[in-house]
Specification:
CATH superfamily of the largest domain: Glutaredoxin
Helix content: 25-40%
Protein name: Thioredoxin peroxidase
Main location: cytoplasm
Subcellular location: Cytoplasm
Low-confidence stretches: none
Strand order of the largest sheet: 2-1-5-4-3-8-9
CATH architecture of the largest domain: 3-Layer(aba) Sandwich
Keywords: Cytoplasm, Disulfide bond, Oxidoreductase, Peroxidase, Redox-active center
Radius of gyration: 19 Å
Order of helices and strands: EEEHHEHEHEEEEHH
Structural class: alpha+beta
Number of domains: 2
Distance between the termini: 36 Å
GO molecular function: thioredoxin peroxidase activity
Mean pLDDT: 97
Number of helices: 6
């Protein structure tokens, strides 16, 4: 598994469904560079079970992300037509109707490969035939990308394990606190709690008070 933290987020151009209803060709994260942070996350398959709970959870907190100047973008290896059909399926039928943030279609699987979350790989057998080993879908990868386009946090879960949106927001708060205050955020830090200077004195002061 590649560690992308500290590196430029891999670029791509693909079709996405935006605002729950429009196809946008050549969608790219480059549009956010210099303007917004990005939470870019992957899910395995449309029309499944854990996936809609996560996507809906992000939508329910979308105002909190926007208040922090963060764009939320999702991606799977399904086509934009599958995304569109899922977006037009009511929640009580397993759909994600009402989702407004962009959903990217990684049908070539190159985005998942470049972010190193594809649960399998292509190779050739002894007959020289192209084969795929593993699952042709993405793990539950999540990447927090800063305004310069650099990955600052990544998390990859196996397919049965849903993510915690609250933790994503906590990491955004920690990054923005560090950028604004120059203080580092200790274990279990939350917005409004004491942070500390990255010095021996700062650590000693924090530990003595907590």
């Amino acid at each position: 598994m590649a560690v992308l933290v500290g590196k430029k987020a891999p670029s791509f151009s693909a079709t996405a469904v935006v605002n729950g209803e429009e196809f946008e060709e050549n969608f790219s994260l480059e549009q956010y560079v210099g303007k917004q942070y990005v939470v870019f996350f992957f899910w395995p398959f449309d029309f499944t079970f854990v996936c809609p709970t996560e996507i809906i959870a992000f939508q329910e907190r979308l105002a909190d992300f926007e208040a922090r100047n963060v764009a939320v973008v999702g991606c799977s290896t399904d086509s934009h037509f599958a995304h569109f059909a899922w977006l037009n399926t009511p929640k009580e039928q397993g759909g994600i109707q009402g989702i407004t943030f962009p959903l990217v279609a990684d049908t070539s699987k190159t985005i998942s490969t470049n972010y190193d979350v594809l649960a399998g790989s292509y190779s050739y057998n002894e007959a020289g035939e192209l084969i795929f080993t593993g699952e042709p879908a993405a793990y539950r990868g999540l990447f927090l990308i800063d305004k310069e386009g650099v990955v600052r946090h990544q998390l990859v879960n196996d397919m049965p394990l849903g993510r915690n949106v609250e933790e994503v927001i906590r990491m955004i708060d920690a990054l923005q606190h560090f950028e604004e205050k120059g203080e580092v955020c200790p274990a279990n830090w939350e917005q409004g709690k004491e942070a500390m200077l990255a010095t021996p004195e700062g650590v000693a002061s924090y530990l003595s008070n907590n």
